[in-house]
Design brief:
Radius of gyration: 20 Å
Shape: globular
Strand content: under 5%
Largest sheet: 2 strands, antiparallel
Number of domains: 3
Number of strands: 4
Structural class: mainly alpha
Length: 170
Amino acid sequence: MWAGFVGGRTYVRVMSGTAVREALSALLAAHDALAACDFDTLSKAESVEFSDALETLGCRLPTLSHRLLAQLQSVSTAREMGARTWKKVLSVRWRISTGEAGRRLALAKELGPRRALTGQPLEPLLPATAVAGPVCVAVIWIAIARDVWPEGAARIPATSRAASRIRVPR
């Protein structure tokens, strides 16, 4: 959605609050409409197709969270948000454990956009992974389990092992 420069800033950036609000409202409305659907009438092929689409969506949504967390941390501090640390901010606000909050913050740091001290945009620390999203992260973990920690491969679900051609050592 490149719209060019307006007063030294991109037009999209100026209008982004409204655009994000509208897009998020549409996403929530789509979720509500999907939740109201009767899945009992679906054929086997449709169930597989729609399950795959939901899985894809579930893998894509965290990339938005990474971007938003990185952006929030660039314009605010944990103290301004009412806590001593970002882990505490997220754990209280989203009612998650501090461990889960730390995991999400670490992912946002590695996969979210960054800014230089001068304000110039920088690519994520792991740009290829950030573009691919969490699916790529799962593949990396599977590769680590296969090559570095072979006994860990046994803990990966059989379907994931089959898709990644991971052999469990005997």
